[in-house]
Amino acid sequence: MHKDLDTLIITPEEMGRIDRAAAASGLSGYGLMERAGQAVAAAALRRFPGALRFAVLCGPGNNGGDGYVAARALQEAGAAVAVHALGDPGSLKGDAATAFKAFDGTVAPLAAYGPRPGDVVIDALFGAGLSRDLPEEAVRIIEAVRDSVLPVLAVDLPSGIDGRTGAVRGDAFAAAATVTFMCRKPGHLLLPGRTLCGEVEVFDIGIPARILAGHAGHMRVNTPAVWRIALPVETGATHKYVRGHLAVFSGPATATGAARLSASAGLRAGAGLVTVLSPPEALAANAAHLTAVMLKPVGGPDDLAVLLDDERLKTFVLGPGFGDFGKARTYVREIAGRGRRLVLDADGISAFRDEPDALFRLFAGGEPRLVLTPHDGEFARLFPDLAEDAGLSKIERAQKAAARSHAAVILKGADTVIAAPDGRALVNANAPPWLATAGSGDVLAGIAGAHLAQGMPAFEAAASAVWRHGEAGRAAGEGMTAEDLVGALRGFDRTG
Q: What confidence score (pLDDT) does residue 1 get?
């Protein structure tokens, strides 16, 4: 597969257009199905060498056709195979009908499948195009397989997962592994689908890269390949102001820790200078814990205005532990009015819950200067209509939010999505589950601020911050704290 397509995410609708374009270009649809089914059979034999029998469950469409090819290949390899069909396989059309006719064996009804010890189930019932609840007959088989604790190899996507949203439509197989074709689909990466796919293998069945690129959207897996070109260039002339000056607003004396986490992460992530902007009453608390991070008193908008007269101070983080919503809105207006860049997190987001459009107007037009870092609850405060729309995937919610706010949006979670106002979207896949700990989001905000301060565009700064945050979590290990996360931050590999 062309290396630029390794990270591509294709919706089921886009995949349908790609299949039609491939056929129009002269490629054999059945040839593609043959390669897909052979890949499934090879994966089954490689992953489950001790299987006593492969139970191939075939659906009423092309996913079922892949299953019939796989069953034939397994049979030719000498494996014991039992094939069960949902619906009448004699009513299959096109390539799936050809695959069924090429299978020389018995096909029993799906309802007749009885799980046996030693079975490996090959799920070829429904692929990524599923957009409705599973029929009851399929649900009963899923329950039987689950009760029997049998391993499942899914074809394209475990049956029951919506390929566009990752939602479970009634019930779904929990696969040990999934074999998909050409590119990942959103359902492989978005929760809860991600947890049910097992290890995902992406197999190139021979559709030219030009066809995929011509019909794909702007969704990718978040990896350095996507944003490495935007990393700041380091030369012998680099000095601390070239690397950027980041300022992080502190909360009151009883809530200073979050800002210090952000500031420490920003310094560790590469900002040349980092300053905590502290209310006067919190100066002593902050000074007792800061060394390389600088400290400035900011008691109100007049103090901030004086700081903003220094043109070298261009990037801010506001929100971690901040507390005062009214002052937050005032500071954001001042920062936006001076053309500065801002990471708005936590309390900074909540401060605009009653007037989100006022926030969006402040940063409208020009190159995006705002990075928003909401979790689901904070997202609902700024974008209540999008949060309530059950028909949208997490990717689609983030894309619409980014377009509305003219910001790079980091919609956090185990399946964090990063979206740009122009429609680009990335799904992050490197974050370990133990990143869900107090202060982790404050660290992420500081990393994003550091990347902005070094001159990266908002979307690339956000995406690289999320990826780096995940890598630090992996390095810190299970049981880590937010302080450990800061210490585990490493530099970028700029050679790839």
A: 45
